[in-house]
Amino acid sequence: LFHSVQLAPKDPIFGLTEAYVADQRADKVNLGVGVYYTDEGKIPLLQAVIKAEEALVAKHAPRGYIPMEGPSQYNLAVQTLLFGNDSSLIKDGRVVTAECIGGTGALRVGADFIKRLNLNAPAAISNPTWENHRGIFEAAGFDVVEYSYFDSKTRGVDFDGMVKSLESFPKNTTVVLHACCHNPTGADMTEAQWRQVIDICKSKELIPFLDMAYQGFADGIEQDGVAVRLFAQSGLSFFVSSSFSKSFSLYGERVGALSIVTESKDESARVMSQLKRVIRTNYSNPPTHGGAIATAVLTSPELRQLWEDELAQMRERIKSMREALVSKLAAAGAKQDFEFINAQRGMFSYSGLTPEQVERLQKEDGIYALSTGRICVAALNTKNIDKVATAIARVIA
Ligand code: PLP
Ligand code: TYF
User: Fold this and answer.
1) Distance 330 CA to ligand 1 centre (A)
2) Is the CB of 142 under 6 A from ligand 1?
3) Cα(155)–Cα(340) distance, rounded to whole angstroms?
4) N or C, which end of the chain has less CB nearby within 10 Å?
5) Per-residue model confidence (pLDDT) at position 92
6) Does residue 372 contact residue 128 with C-beta atoms inside 8 Å?
7) Residue 396 in contact with residue 353, Cβ under 8 Å?
8) Which residues pair with 258 in a beta bridge?
């Protein structure tokens, strides 16, 4: 049966983590996977999460099935974070939300749903993007095309290239956009550029699909919601996948959501009924635990404040690591100006390191990064940063 099954290539990010784990060097550093670590090099368990979880456990609640789309309190909490407290879209019943298995699950449920609309149009992802965007949309049966996004000279958004690409796409192309903290480049659009993208989506009748995996990691929860809010004002129908993996440090609990903005309450009811069919035939209904934690935190004023403070601490620590890396690279004799690292947003820096330089870091120093030069700044800390800065300065010299 399996004679002709070929060995699949390793996932580049998980493959790198395997190599890191197998590395015997005590001072090895994993800047590969997109995970936030504390200054002690640990994945944090947030105090807000601990408190919510303790209260949940004390309840000894039964674990019956929850609705296919997840609990309504969870879905409303997600909508409020994304669209704001007094969103007219929410009030008018124009947002449909389903709890999904992480942001990944939300992307896949959304992709499956769009595929069932039989629009016969491709999905467009940014060049470059998070590796799994292509995989998810291809697995859902889409032809996947790319739009220009990054300008390696300015290290910013190649906006002219992006506009040209978007304008060339056929009607009903699904355009996957990073709502903030672009993975892997850290380059985000300005508000004015977002407005232009919205105009193109309108005039070319494209389907916007915003991927929000890092809300709160750039400037704050509200500030990072700007793209979603602009789309919300546009009158367009669109998709948002969101995730609490990073913002709650709940990676393994797989807590995310798919939200769809429709034209009316009536449309919402029909869309939700079809969304449930997609979910039913994939995994039936989401797990209980992670979503219950997020709901408890988001709906308790006290826990919510605690969470926002902890999220701000994560965000600030990343920023301070960016600043430290820039100054330590200069101190280590790097000729190149690395100021761009401070302008990049979110967990990553697209460092500009070549595949050969990345390989040397791994071989000679036990420092693991993606071959594209993406490094996870959120994995730097006060103990490993000198080593990392010295090693980078050496391999680029
Ligand atoms: N989208 C982007 C751009 C991401 O970087 C990630 C995670 O790294 C996700 C979605 C999905 O994350 P998860 O499925 O862990 O919630
Ligand atoms: O580092 C990244 O870009 C991600 C990490 O379910 C990741 O690929 C790992 C597991 C997962 C989602 C994202």
Assistant:
1) 32
2) no
3) 7
4) N
5) 97
6) yes
7) yes
8) 98, 241
Q: Are strands 156-157 and 95-101 parallel, antiparallel or unpaired?
A: unpaired
Angle among Cα 371, 373, 376 to the nearest 5 degrees reads 105
Q: Which two tokens stand for residue 176?
A: 């996957």
pLDDT of residue 248: 98
Nearest to 344 by CA among 214, 195, 193: 214
Are the beta carbons of 290 and 102 closer than 8 angstroms?
Answer: no
- Residue 13, pLDDT > 90, answer no
- The residue whose CA is least distant from atom 4 of ligand 2 is 34
pLDDT tier at 10, thresholds 50, 70, 90 = confident
Cβ-based neighbours of 303, under 8 Å, separated by 6 or more: 48, 51, 52, 296, 297
| ipTM computed for the complex | 0.93
184, 150 Cβ separation under 8 angstroms: no
Q: Which residues of 27-48 are buried (b: 16+ CB within 10 A; e: fewer)?
A: ebbbbbbbbbbeeeeeebebeb
Using CB distances shorter than 6 Å, the residues near ligand 2 are 13, 33-34, 102, 104, 130, 183
Residues 318, 186: contact at Cβ < 8 Å? no
Whose C-alpha lies nearest to ligand 2, atom 3?
34
CA distance 327 to 334: 10
Minimal-distance CA residue to ligand 2 atom 1: 34
CB atoms inside a 10 Å sphere around CB 172:
16
